[in-house]
Design brief:
It is a single chain. This protein is an alpha+beta fold. The protein has one domain: phage-related protein like fold (Alpha-Beta Complex). It has helices at 6-10, 96-101, 108-130, 143-146, 162-170, 186-199; strands spanning 37-40, 44-52, 77-84, 86-95, 152-154, 181-184, 206-209, 215-219, 222-226, 232-233, 240-247, 258-263, 269-276, 282-295, 301-310. The protein is flat.
Length: 311
Amino acid sequence: MASLTLVEAAKIQQNPLISGIIESVVTVNHMYQVLPFDQIVGNALLYTRENAIGGVAPIGIGGGSNTIPAAAKTPATFTPVTTPLKALIGDALVDHFIDTTMGNNNNQTAVQVASKAKGLGREYQRQFILGDSSVDPLEFDGLAKLMPAAQKIDENGAAMTLEMLDEGISGVKAKDGAVDFITLPDAAIRKYFSLLRAAGGASIAEFRQMPDGQQIPLYRGIPMFRNDYIPLLNPSGTVLETDIYLGCFDDGSRKTGIAGLTSTVQNGIFVSYVGEAEQTNDTITRLRFYASMAIFSELGVFKLEQVQVRA
């Protein structure tokens, strides 16, 4: 007598479907959790950086106007800066038939909207590091493009050392020398722990807990935020090089470090129900993010370029 086959049994058995989506597209950027965002009215922010202070000079007793050195008469000069907001957008289109008849385990529209929101956040984080309006006028300029020449050192492939980090920390001066972040890819963090082991053991590392519960390593009390949006140079080769950014967050004065920018009227990622598509059976939900980033003081950032993190 033949027993019930697996094929026949499967005809009257439905496998359970877990609600929700397991993420497989993940790029780590811990700094995004703590990055301050400044809301602005309008589509651009204008601010002025000090370029040169007014000149001064010593003068002898009884000196008159005709004896005042020319250097004492030079005025302060300034550099105006304009940082525009840029628009990021994503449309979630879901066939009305699918949305209304296939939502018993997962809301089809909600899943698509959540994915679009994730995509907007990821694109903002990419542009925050690599955005370049000279390559794509629709992008905002990121840290790599905005980094002032005087605030970076080309390590030219030299192996990462703790002394390099010390030098980068010393270069951040905008907030009385306070440094709020070191952001670097995971390969550089692994190299950091290797340096600690060589210096007496990785157990000497300090950590700080993030809002999501993650433990972030510290160097001299400064959080080292893993940021996988910072590219690795020669990733397919044996030798790995990368860039390391250090700096401070703006304190709300718009005069110190870095901050994200977004619109006051529509701040953050906002969702609008557009309605029924005219030519198809789709319903449309639109997500927008009007955003940018600013380096208010050029002394609020520093960059170590082409640091070797693996030989």
